[in-house]
Inverse folding.
């Protein structure tokens, strides 16, 4: 697994980098060499945040943990990552159980906690605009996110308000 460590507002020691690589190596048997793990470490006052994003075969697994210790945040984030992988593994096994390669089996009746019910659908016109204009529109309607068509690339994008009050932009990857 390829591990990329980014430190924001912090200086990460070489010992911590080695610890991250060692602890992430337990996932090598699941992902193999082609996976990429991005580890982002942020320090703000008394809190230390470790965010882990693993990309493998088009799937993205992301976890984040905040605590008073960088090592504790790392351990918690790795535990959360292991749980997400296990949960996804069981759902895929349940979906494809008994099927031949290249075919889908009918999914078995799932428990209530595994079902996702769409309770409302909404359709609207997606107008071409800039990201700044989309943020303005989002704030005007009072939503946490806003979908729009980028006026330069003509691609569908989403702007969203982050927990810290800043804004994010989701763009399709080419």
């Amino acid at each position: 697994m390829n591990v990329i460590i980014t430190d924001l507002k912090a200086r990460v020691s070489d010992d911590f980098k080695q610890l991250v690589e060692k602890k992430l190596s337990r996932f090598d048997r699941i992902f193999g060499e082609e996976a990429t793990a991005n580890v982002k470490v942020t320090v703000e006052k008394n809190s230390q945040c470790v965010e882990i994003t693993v990309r493998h075969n088009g799937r993205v697994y992301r976890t984040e943990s905040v605590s008073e210790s960088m090592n504790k945040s790392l351990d918690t984030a790795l535990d959360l990552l292991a749980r997400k992988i296990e949960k996804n593994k069981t759902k895929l096994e349940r979906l494809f159980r008994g099927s031949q390669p290249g075919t889908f089996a009918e999914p078995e009746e799932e428990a209530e906690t595994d079902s996702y019910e769409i309770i409302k659908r909404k359709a609207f016109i997606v107008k071409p605009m800039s990201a700044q204009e989309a943020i303005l529109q989002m704030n005007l309607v009072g939503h946490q996110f806003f979908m729009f068509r980028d006026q330069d690339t003509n691609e569908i994008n989403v702007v969203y308000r982050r927990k810290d009050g800043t804004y994010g932009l989701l763009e399709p990857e080419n």
Q: What stands out?
A: The chain has four helices and eight strands.
